Amino acid sequence: MFDGLQEILFTLRQNKLRTLLTAFGVFWGVFMLIMLLGFGRGMQNGVMDSFGSDVLDFIVVAPGDTSVAYRGMGVGRRIQIDQRDIQAITRQIKGVRVISAESTLGSGTITYAGKNSNADIRGIPDEYFRIKEDLPFNFGRRLDPLDINETRKIVVVGTTVADRLFAKGTNPVGQDIRVKDVVMKTAGVFYDKSNQGRNSERVYIPMSTYRKVYGGGDRIDAIWLRPERGIDGFELEKQVVELVKRRHSVSPEDQRGISSFNMALPAKNINGLFLGITVFIWFVGLGTLTAGIVGISNIMIITVKERTREIGIRKALGATPLTIVSTLLLESTLVTSVAGYVGLVLGVALLELISFGVHSSGAKLPFFLNPEVNFQIAITALCLLVAVGVIAGLAPALRAAKITPTEAMRAE
Question: In the chain, what are the domain boundaries?
Fold first, then answer.
């Protein structure tokens, strides 16, 4: 084995330029594949990050003004949903994992120590944060059932509001602020990057407190829900909308009287888009790799032709076909493995360097975040490359094994 390796290294040194060019073809193929996969992942991370802090399966149902006359009632009728709609959905529709109301007061002034900030004021039950479960809190806590049951005058505020009200280094938790002239205690600060960060200009207060302070009774402005795992969210959305429309005598064809938004739809479209991009990347990358593999096959054919006399002499001295095939295959495998490994390492290193540079500079690139490559995919690609390299060298090696000593002596 060691002697065979020495022989291969000697042969490669005798043809340095040819070996270097062949190895470069393989190296460049792997390097470009890793870079393409990394940048593709960076684009996907950036686009998915633009969805914000929301989960990707929530559904929102909201009322509006009717646009279709129905059952003797005209166009332009304002629909108002309430807590009874949520109760009806819970009783009549299966597959709802969590459901929550939301009431919106609109924009209002938040005041603290002489500083003001406008914010979108919303009343919610504690179930709301089971839907927005990925919403990070930089300080304090979320609203809990005790806040609802005891009608506590507390509020959680977005980071944008907190930055406007509190001096740097001040802990907002426990501070008394005025929410439209009503004093409430700050329980937490959240960051919602949805809607390009504008959702961090919101404040949330317990639903019971909202109704007591601002009125409105059982009326709500939106219904948020999530399907159970394994349930078709689009079918669930259809059932919920149909039920709410029946309850409020809205035409089934009316898209404005009761409207809905299913986050699964844009997420599905984005995933389909990136599946196509990934297929294209692999197509281009494997095409580049194929060029390198073809180069190895051609070089092996030339090598066999140049070493025909040597192979004949070795067979005359007792070398078996297996020995000759294994020597030639080891040569192609060595070149492919080393060049592919170097391409893999440099590709991953460059992606890490780019990611580090972006984070260190604080740059916010649109639709691009954390370029990376799946390590398992990278290793699989390298192993596949080596296997194809062996196959590429197999045909010339088998041809060499069939050469007879007499034929070898006649070769030029």
Answer: 2-51+268-410, 59-262
